[in-house]
Please model this.
Amino acid sequence: MNLAPLRESVRGELRDDDSILATYNRDASRLKARPLGVFWPLDTTDVHSVVHWARERSIPLVPRGAGTGLAGGSVGQGLIVDTARLTQIEIQEDNLLAIVGAGVINTHLQDALKPYRLFWPPDPSSHRISSSEET
Ligand SMILES: Cc1cc2nc3c(=O)[nH]c(=O)nc-3n(C[C@H](O)[C@H](O)[C@H](O)COP(=O)(O)OP(=O)(O)OC[C@H]3O[C@@H](n4cnc5c(N)ncnc54)[C@H](O)[C@@H]3O)c2cc1C
Model:
């Protein structure tokens, strides 16, 4: 798969070397699949670009947070979109609203909320290593 056109249209890192494919061919489940490559978007513009690129070529995208899921959901033969660099946290105290990047680690959001005496209810025992979404 030629990833060059995508590489030229995004700011985030894109890799398809053997070492990274071997690292990303599994998550915390026992399931394995060799992906096409791994992309780390830096912002929502990058996410838009990769979705557009993949849709035009009918290439599956596999979102990946921290890879701690136990059902193999972040494992796949398509292009892995690793959210690890989408880590912004904005808290609007008056609206009781947190706007967070898709890769924010649960415990980091919890720590950011403490000064406001607020609490992020999803609380998996993997909170120190998993990102904000729950499976
Ligand atoms: C030691 C340990 C303890 C655990 N304890 C718990 C627990 O107490 N409760 C619990 O519910 N789970 C637990 N889990 C499972 C897992 O940690 C949680 O489900 C966690 O929420 C997964 O987060 P992650 O960032 O690792 O997601 P990943 O494993 O990377 O992804 C999980 C799924 O979400 C999808 N996904 C990821 N990011 C996005 C995105 N931005 N947009 C759309 N889809 C996305 C992936 O494609 C995949 O299907 C545990 C796991 C381990 C290893």
Observations:
- Helices lie at 4-9, 18-23, 44-57, 106-113.
- The chain has a mean pLDDT of 95.
- The pocket of flavin-adenine dinucleotide is lined by residues 27-28, 62-70, 73-74, 83, 102, 124-126, 130-131, 133-135 (CB under 6 Å).
- Residues 4-84 form a domain with the Uridine Diphospho-n-acetylenolpyruvylglucosamine Reductase; domain 2 fold (CATH 3.30.43.10).
